[in-house]
Design goal:
Elements (H helix, E strand, L loop, with lengths): L1 E5 L3 H13 L3 E6 L7 H18 L3 E3 L5 H10 L4 H19 L4 E4 L9 H15 L12 H10 L11 H20 L3
Parallel strand pairs: 1-2, 1-4, 2-3
Helix pairs in contact: 1-2, 1-6, 3-4, 4-5
């Protein structure tokens, strides 16, 4: 199998690539993540993934497009949950790229995180697979999440503190701010 593996970042790639390699799967890694904000974070994640791929000798395909307005509009207009937009834009891109470039299937490292909406990723990826006529290779990589964390720490890869979108960044730091305020009010 010649697989196109969409990757959100270096750390999330650690376990899936190890598992796919152990299973004898051939793959290339695709970086397409226009949802990651701010731009400085987008570049930092790309550079970390490049570092990872260079060390592991993986082929990396990069799309540096950064349609900020389109992404924000898409997230704000998403009727159910904003994450659906982010998953959809990336899975559609991966499926289309895989189909146009002769891959047998596509997958994503998003399936490693216990913090992502796993079933929604799977559903949206399967819809993209049907739309572009290429199989989605599904594997629940969450069992190897801690292994991936350990690998990324051993490799001293940058580990990001939020999923990537501007809203998750805000939510992350608002939570921290609220915790600190609550602790201060409790006299801790």
């Amino acid at each position: 199998m010649n697989l196109l593996l969409h990757a959100c970042c270096g750390p999330c790639s650690c376990y899936p690539t190890e598992k796919l390699t152990a299973d004898g799967k051939k793959f290339d890694i695709l970086y397409f993540n226009p949802n990651i904000h701010p731009y400085k974070e987008f570049k930092r994640r790309l550079n970390t993934l490049r570092e990872f791929c260079e060390k592991k000798k993986y082929n990396l395909i990069v799309d540096k497009s950064y349609p900020l307005e389109e992404c924000l509009r898409g997230m704000l207009d998403e009727p159910v949950v904003r994450c659906a937009y982010c998953y959809r834009v990336r899975m559609r891109y991966a499926a289309k790229y895989a189909k146009e470039n002769g891959y047998d299937a596509f997958s994503t490292t998003l399936l490693v995180s216990p913090y992502q909406k796993h079933e929604l990723i799977k559903q949206i990826a399967e819809e993209a697979a049907a739309e572009f006529g290429i199989p989605f290779y599904y594997e629940d990589f969450r069992e190897g999440y801690q292994r991936g964390v350990d690998i990324s720490l051993e490799m001293e890869l940058y580990r990001q503190p939020y999923c990537g979108c501007v809203f998750s960044e805000r939510d992350r730091y608002e939570r921290v701010k609220k915790k600190k305020k609550a602790a201060a009010e409790a006299g801790e």
